[in-house]
Amino acid sequence: MSGVRDTLRLARGAPLPVASWLLLVAGAVLLVAAQWVLWADEVLFDADGFSERAVRALDDDDVQEYVSTVIVDTLIEEGSPDLIAARPLIEAAVQAVIGSSPFEQLYETALRETHRTLLSEDPIVLQIVDVSVVVKPTLANFNPELAESIPDLDTEVLDLAESEVVHAVLDIAEGVRVLAQVLPLLAVGALAASWALPRGRRRAAMRVGIALVVVAILMVLLLDFSKAAIAALVGERAGAAAEGVWDAFLGDLRSWNLAIGAGGALMATAASPWFAGLSPAQAPARVWELMTAPGSNAGRLLRAVIAVAVGWIALVSPGDLVEFSVALLGLAAVYLGLAELVRLLWVERTTTAEDLARAAAAQRPRLSPVVRLAALVAVIAVGVATIGVLVSGLGIIGGADRDTPAALEACNGHAELCDRPLNEVAFAATHNSMSAASEGWFFAAHSDGIAEQLDHGIRGLLIDVWFGSPARNGVSTELLGGSREVMVERYGLEAVESRERIAARLGPTSGRELYLCHGFCELGATPLRETLDDIRRFLVTNPAEVVIVFIQDEAPAADIAAAFEDAGLDRYAYAHPGAAAPWPTLGELVERNERLVVMTENAPDAPVPWLHRGFEVAQETPFRFHSVDDLSCELNRGRADAALFLVNHWIEDIAPSPADAELLNARDVLLPRLRQCESERGQLPNLVAVNFYRVGDLMAVVDELNGVGTASQ
User: Fold this and answer.
1) Residues of the chain with CATH 3.20.20.190
2) I need a labelling partner for 6 at 20 to 30 A (CA). Which of 267, 350, 616, 690 fits?
3) What DSSP line would sit under 38-66, residue for residue?
4) What pTM was estimated for this model as a whole?
5) pLDDT single digits (tens) 399-440
6) b/e map of 291-328 (b: 16 or more CB within 10 Å)?
7) What is the C-alpha to C-alpha distance for residues 183 and 416, in angstroms, rounded to an integer?
């Protein structure tokens, strides 16, 4: 025990500059503040983060039960008293709806847009005025009375945008965003300076590690006690639900502190004088010695506190104790492994008599250069392997071996399609594929985005690519060729003026990027690069699938081609040798790994061989239909002898309707029209493009056109 006392006396006698301690305290305080600010910026003041955690809360069984109970109680109170007898059935129905994916998508979208309404520089309530300008003229074409019933949004609605509450919230949000960038840097700087100032760097590193542990413990205790207090305040009925919501919104903050505490514990242990000069094999014995026979009153007090805490946790929450113990063992294993590797690479210089004595006691033969090199390689290998696992888990790398199937068993879900040329296969397609309610689009044409569409079986994507200028509150559209007149001719003066008012409120723009938009990026915009990443990920993980992308290119084709190349999609792109050349079979495309066919509508020339001028190789039907009776199979764009055939099958409206899609996509409407077009044009419809693809019988009808059974997705 004298060795331990000497070590403690050495630590106490070392110079501890006041500045180092002050910086340590300041760093710990700044770390606490930085965590709360980062959390607020990521969760409270970010629409996506807020809505994501709200949906996560809804996944909790207790939250679902509470929400469904409130809904059922309201239905029964406001409805017929006879509903009480059917309460179990109503509860089952409500719980089924709340737990469904469509409800979660609707719930997340509503929360996201509400959040953006309150926390954007120009709340979306302002844009509703302009949206009404766009909607009313279109609605008047179908139902003038309903159009007249839409009220004019006057200044009373706009007062919200000028209210002091909104401005106060915006000021707080802006301050939080600034602090989220500054406070973490200040905290790291203060802790680093606290370590760098004193001469005893090892002891300074130990103090920094202890400070991290203290911060983590205090934060975890604060979060846990606050959760318990709130659950107690709201009562037994809502307590479990409140805990579920608390975990969804603040669980990340708790996880951050557990990670900070674990890192601090490793740092403090590795730098502690109690373990200096010890091999990893001796470290557990030293821990046991400190716990069973502490050499000071402070050590005995610490042992007593730890024993009480462990006993209390074992009684109150044994599951947490098991989880903590397993985590502690994992940290110990990591520490022992790293300590041994470090010992092989580096021996701390001795500066005092005590250090010399300790070093002499732990003296070991000098290691050969081969062993030291092997240890260095091991450290590097562990780091590379860890980074590789993390990166591949995010889907950034890996999967190259999956590009080509080991054996060709099916193409686009069916073995029968492998021997058919591309122009003899029907593809389920979506019109305005990017226009998704789940991604915050106004007037969405689909419930979910392109990644989900591909997973569902969609193999034809009709997308519009524009240049836009990103702003803080949205994206500003770049006019077609810089011409306002073209926009007016296509969309009308009122719509263009409305877009201009919205764009003026978006704030300063920065640069230009390619976006997927439908006429107005202000009403919905998805970065092209994100969608191309989704398509590439799908092709990599589904090596027997062929996808067609038809682009309404309102940006230069060369820029679009460059975006495909940046996403790594050019390696999958098929280049057709000429309009008169026969098309390869799906099996040939799969075997050559040329499974992406890309076409554009407007480009006068193809900048690369695989970016085809669409209406040289394809023909289409009209698309401006206002009712089912308007549907026709007449030739619109393209040559009558073009090999590929696009059938446009939707009602043209600025606000697409699921009710229209339910009628149009029904087998009794969709299949007869496709058969009629096949008969009139003498060609199988290759792209069957619809709105709201999940509604109706699109997939079954396409399989029937192909003469195959249900696809094996």
Assistant:
1) 422-475+527-706
2) 267
3) HHIIIIIS-HHHHHHHHHHHHTSHHHHHH
4) 0.49
5) 333 344 445 689 999 999 999 999 999 999 999 999 988 887
6) eeebbeeeeeeeeeeeeeeeeebeeeeeeebeeeeeee
7) 61
